[in-house]
């Protein structure tokens, strides 16, 4: 790989204290397990995963996959045993926020007892569907929020990674604030999280600088992971960005070196 990572997870809290439509049921009910969800099509091979900048189990990406597993472990320690919603946002655009969100979701899906759902909440520059090679033919998040009658099932796509599903952003928008602060968005996340106890949700938000969306999205999340482009932001800028979030939700800061 021409790019490599230097992910360092700084904990800010006291640790003591080829895709298709998914095949699982999404009718309202709670507390089921979906780790044995049906997968349609073949799982992507390690070389295909690397092309998509995704971790896998082979040695060639061991350093990266260990870094993401470590973040997974810390989040699980903080959560006290319940499934949760994690917002991943970068301080400045193009710093690797989506890269970290995607790989963190993949690290959870590595665990055969867990499933993860990545939701692309970057409405202006959505990219997870492209990165994961998903064709969002039935729309995504915004399409559901505007027309909930379509049902959640239609906007959850397989990714070629067992137990990892994607909700793409859908029809792109300049501003997500009105959607993210809506009752419908909160109800959707509640229903996605509560429906399956082994499902972990990851919100991929736009950068903190230049948009209020990251802060608005943090109200919907249990944890926030902030991504700093290595050498891009000054310590003062990082502190200012982090100050947007409730300290009890701030799970850590990842320093990502993408080039
Ligand atoms: N550690 C890394 N290793 C390899 N590639 C990386 C790494 N971090 C980021 N990249 C690549 O750099 C590019 C920008 O990353 P990404 O889209 O994740 O940034 P972002 O902060 O989400 O940007 P945006 O502001 O558009 O949301 C992508 O092509 C991504 O695959
Ligand atoms: Mg992004």
Automatic annotation (TrEMBL):
UniProt-recorded name of the protein: Tyrosine protein kinase
A GO MF term: kinase activity
Keywords: ATP-binding, Kinase, Nucleotide-binding, Transferase
Organism: Dyella nitratireducens
InterPro entries: Bact_polysacc_biosynth/exp, P-loop_NTPase, Wzc-like_C
Entry superkingdom: Bacteria
